[in-house]
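Final report, closing paragraph on structural work. Over the funding period we assembled a curated collection of sequence-structure pairs, and we close with a single example.
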Amino acid sequence: MLRSWFKRIALSSAFAVLFMLGFASAAYAQSGGGIAQPSTGTITGDLASWAALVGIGLPAVVALLQRDHFGSTWNAVLFGIAVVVASVVYAYIKYSNDFTWAHWEASLLTIVVWGIATYKLYWKPSGITSKARAVPIGIGPAAGSGNTDK
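Its predicted structure, as stored:
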């Protein structure tokens, strides 16, 4: 049972890292790789645009950790923790040399708004998060009967 829980956390973490690495390379390239360059004003350099994409994809990634039998409060706490972690990581990647409270606050607000909006308007009605929560991974009632550890 513990092995399956570890696999689930590792898989969710791997997805989150891959998701963030995609944005890290864009943020690093936009910063010039440490060389000061003039701002081009493109949409890819805008904090709100990339943070919005993180917020859009985050409910699907967090659904891998959530379970229907956990209850809405526990699932909300998991989503809240994921939002805070994602906003800190994203803001630090985007503004590593100039990481301030304002940068973190802007990324947090953007990720929260887009995450909740897309969950309520797309992820939940489409049933994708329910299917992700129902994937048996070896913990609780959703795991089914039988031992999956070998």
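Helices lie at 2-30, 47-62, 72-94, 101-126, 128-133. Residues 2-30+45-135 form one domain. We thank the funder for supporting this effort.
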